[in-house]
User: Which sequence fits this backbone?
Protein backbone atom coordinates (compact mmCIF):
# COMPACT_ATOMS: atom_id res chain seq x y z
CA UNK A 1 0.00 0.00 0.00
CA UNK A 2 1.17 3.51 -0.82
CA UNK A 3 -0.10 6.53 1.09
CA UNK A 4 1.18 10.02 0.23
CA UNK A 5 0.04 13.59 0.72
CA UNK A 6 0.66 16.52 -1.56
CA UNK A 7 2.11 18.32 1.46
CA UNK A 8 4.89 15.73 1.86
CA UNK A 9 5.91 15.85 -1.81
CA UNK A 10 5.89 19.65 -2.03
CA UNK A 11 9.45 20.83 -2.59
CA UNK A 12 10.77 17.35 -3.46
CA UNK A 13 11.79 15.87 -6.84
CA UNK A 14 8.10 14.93 -7.28
CA UNK A 15 7.15 18.63 -7.33
CA UNK A 16 7.96 19.85 -10.85
CA UNK A 17 7.21 23.29 -12.28
CA UNK A 18 7.60 25.19 -15.52
CA UNK A 19 6.48 28.53 -16.84
CA UNK A 20 2.83 28.87 -15.83
CA UNK A 21 2.35 25.33 -14.47
CA UNK A 22 3.20 23.06 -11.56
CA UNK A 23 2.78 19.30 -11.31
CA UNK A 24 2.91 17.32 -8.09
CA UNK A 25 3.61 13.74 -9.17
CA UNK A 26 1.90 11.64 -6.53
CA UNK A 27 2.26 8.23 -8.23
CA UNK A 28 5.10 7.58 -10.68
CA UNK A 29 6.37 4.77 -12.87
CA UNK A 30 8.79 3.63 -10.20
CA UNK A 31 5.83 2.82 -7.96
CA UNK A 32 5.12 -0.12 -10.29
CA UNK A 33 1.36 0.25 -10.75
CA UNK A 34 1.18 0.88 -14.51
CA UNK A 35 0.08 4.53 -14.44
CA UNK A 36 1.13 7.84 -12.94
CA UNK A 37 -1.14 10.25 -11.05
CA UNK A 38 -0.52 13.99 -10.75
CA UNK A 39 -2.07 17.11 -9.29
CA UNK A 40 -1.39 19.88 -11.82
CA UNK A 41 -2.08 23.60 -11.50
CA UNK A 42 -2.07 25.98 -14.44
CA UNK A 43 -1.75 29.71 -13.74
CA UNK A 44 -4.60 32.04 -14.68
CA UNK A 45 -4.02 33.80 -17.99
CA UNK A 46 -1.49 31.27 -19.25
CA UNK A 47 -1.68 29.22 -22.46
CA UNK A 48 0.08 25.91 -23.06
CA UNK A 49 0.38 23.56 -26.04
CA UNK A 50 0.82 19.88 -25.22
CA UNK A 51 1.08 16.79 -27.41
CA UNK A 52 1.46 13.47 -25.63
CA UNK A 53 2.48 11.20 -28.50
CA UNK A 54 3.68 8.48 -26.12
CA UNK A 55 1.05 8.62 -23.40
CA UNK A 56 -2.71 8.53 -22.90
CA UNK A 57 -3.76 11.23 -20.45
CA UNK A 58 -7.02 11.57 -18.53
CA UNK A 59 -7.66 14.92 -16.85
CA UNK A 60 -10.34 15.83 -14.33
CA UNK A 61 -10.64 19.56 -13.67
CA UNK A 62 -11.50 20.09 -10.01
CA UNK A 63 -11.09 23.88 -9.89
CA UNK A 64 -11.14 26.76 -12.35
CA UNK A 65 -12.32 27.66 -15.84
CA UNK A 66 -10.56 27.48 -19.16
CA UNK A 67 -10.68 26.49 -22.80
CA UNK A 68 -9.36 23.32 -24.41
CA UNK A 69 -8.58 23.43 -28.14
CA UNK A 70 -8.17 20.09 -29.93
CA UNK A 71 -5.64 21.24 -32.51
CA UNK A 72 -5.81 18.00 -34.51
CA UNK A 73 -9.59 18.18 -35.08
CA UNK A 74 -10.19 21.96 -34.74
CA UNK A 75 -12.70 21.58 -31.90
CA UNK A 76 -12.95 23.86 -28.85
CA UNK A 77 -14.33 22.91 -25.43
CA UNK A 78 -15.15 25.15 -22.50
CA UNK A 79 -13.93 23.65 -19.24
CA UNK A 80 -15.07 24.17 -15.66
CA UNK A 81 -14.89 22.33 -12.38
CA UNK A 82 -16.18 18.80 -12.94
CA UNK A 83 -15.03 18.64 -16.59
CA UNK A 84 -13.00 15.65 -17.71
CA UNK A 85 -11.10 15.13 -20.93
CA UNK A 86 -9.30 12.07 -22.22
CA UNK A 87 -6.55 12.33 -24.82
CA UNK A 88 -7.10 8.79 -26.10
CA UNK A 89 -6.04 9.73 -29.64
CA UNK A 90 -2.83 11.52 -28.62
CA UNK A 91 -4.42 14.81 -29.71
CA UNK A 92 -2.24 17.90 -29.83
CA UNK A 93 -4.07 20.46 -27.73
CA UNK A 94 -3.89 23.99 -26.37
CA UNK A 95 -5.09 24.76 -22.86
CA UNK A 96 -5.99 28.33 -21.94
CA UNK A 97 -6.54 29.06 -18.25
CA UNK A 98 -9.10 31.82 -17.67
CA UNK A 99 -8.70 31.30 -13.91
CA UNK A 100 -6.23 29.09 -12.09
CA UNK A 101 -6.87 25.47 -13.03
CA UNK A 102 -6.33 22.60 -10.62
CA UNK A 103 -6.47 19.21 -12.29
CA UNK A 104 -5.99 15.56 -11.38
CA UNK A 105 -4.20 13.75 -14.22
CA UNK A 106 -3.51 10.10 -14.99
CA UNK A 107 -0.83 9.04 -17.51
CA UNK A 108 -0.51 5.64 -19.14
CA UNK A 109 2.16 4.47 -19.53
CA UNK A 110 3.39 6.14 -16.35
CA UNK A 111 5.90 8.95 -16.36
CA UNK A 112 9.05 8.76 -14.25
CA UNK A 113 8.64 12.26 -12.83
CA UNK A 114 11.65 13.84 -14.50
CA UNK A 115 10.30 14.27 -18.04
CA UNK A 116 10.17 17.74 -19.54
CA UNK A 117 8.10 18.85 -22.50
CA UNK A 118 10.13 19.10 -25.71
CA UNK A 119 9.69 21.89 -28.28
CA UNK A 120 6.45 20.21 -29.48
CA UNK A 121 4.98 19.76 -25.99
CA UNK A 122 5.79 16.03 -26.00
CA UNK A 123 7.07 13.91 -23.10
CA UNK A 124 9.59 11.27 -24.15
CA UNK A 125 8.69 7.66 -23.52
CA UNK A 126 10.87 6.39 -20.69
CA UNK A 127 10.61 2.72 -19.74
CA UNK A 128 10.57 2.23 -15.98
CA UNK A 129 12.08 -0.88 -14.45
CA UNK A 130 10.34 -1.72 -11.19
Assistant:
Amino acid sequence: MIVRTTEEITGTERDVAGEGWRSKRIVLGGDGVGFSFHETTIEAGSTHVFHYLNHIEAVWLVEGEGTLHDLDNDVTYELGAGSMYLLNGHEKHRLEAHTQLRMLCVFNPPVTGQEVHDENGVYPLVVVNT
About this structure: The helical segments are 6-9. Residues 6-9 form the longest helix (4 residues).
